Amino acid sequence: MGWGEVRSRVGPITQRVPPAVGAMASQLEGAMETLINVFHHYSGKEGDKYKLSKKELKELLQSELGCFLETQKDTGAVEKIMQDLDENGDGEVDFQEYVVLVAALTVACNTFFWENA
């Protein structure tokens, strides 16, 4: 199943579902909350508060994935990432596009670590 198929099945999430009062979050729920919080920490500093501008994306990548970017010898890596993620061509990265990046990096890391273990 490809990302496009997954995205079409899940569709946009139109409302927030708060965790049950007093319930402890699972590791996965905590990870999802972190992904959401990281995105919104960087989004909306300029322009649309629900999207990352190129500058905001660069700041997120440098702060949150600095080690990954350091290994990239291509000085245009952020520009290429932005072009690859910006599926709708609006010059910004929305939450769904951001999740695609995180998922792709997670798959790559999983492959690397499990094949080299």
Automatic annotation (TrEMBL):
Keyword Calcium among record annotations: yes
Domain of life: Eukaryota
GO (cellular component) term, any one: mitochondrion
Domain EF-hand, first and last residues per copy: 73-108
Main location: cytoplasm
Subunit annotation: Dimer of either two alpha chains, or two beta chains, or one alpha and one beta chain. Also forms heterodimers with S100P. Interacts with AGER. Interacts with CAPZA1. Interacts with FKBP4. Interacts with RYR1 and RYR2. Interacts with CACYBP in a calcium-dependent manner. Interacts with PPP5C (via TPR repeats); the interaction is calcium-dependent and modulates PPP5C activity. Interacts with ATP2A2 and PLN in a Ca(2+)-dependent manner. Interacts with mitochondrial F1-ATPase subunits ATP5F1A and ATP5F1B; these interactions increase F1-ATPase activity.
Function as written in the Swiss-Prot or TrEMBL entry: Small calcium binding protein that plays important roles in several biological processes such as Ca(2+) homeostasis, chondrocyte biology and cardiomyocyte regulation. In response to an increase in intracellular Ca(2+) levels, binds calcium which triggers conformational changes. These changes allow interactions with specific target proteins and modulate their activity.
Protein known as: Protein S100
Origin species: Callipepla squamata
